[in-house]
Amino acid sequence: MNFRERSYADAVDWYDMAVNTTSEDDGGEFDAVMDDPVYQLQAAMAQLYLDGGYGLEKDASYAGLFLSSLPLCPVLGSIAAVWAIDKENKLILPWCH
Questions:
Q1: What domain range includes position 12?
Q2: What is the rounded CA–CA span in Å between residue 47 and residue 68?
Q3: Residue 47 lies inside a defined structural domain of this protein
Q4: Does residue 64 sit within a domain?
Q5: pTM surpassing 0.90?
């Protein structure tokens, strides 16, 4: 079997591309994050920077930039205002659906 090497750096690049894509795809769709809201992708990028490894330098301050830019949730207000990190350095976010 041919397995790809795990790369957090590549994952961040793909997440970033999904969040920032504004052009239509071959099917005429324009929303690159149709299945996952932008804030979930931004939170995933923040978690990768908190964890570090697999080609990505650990950087909690950069993770904080992603978290502080999270959008407003109509139920909770700013998601960034209520996120936390547990004892295993994992994000605790109140997902707003």
A1: 8-92
A2: 13
A3: yes
A4: yes
A5: no
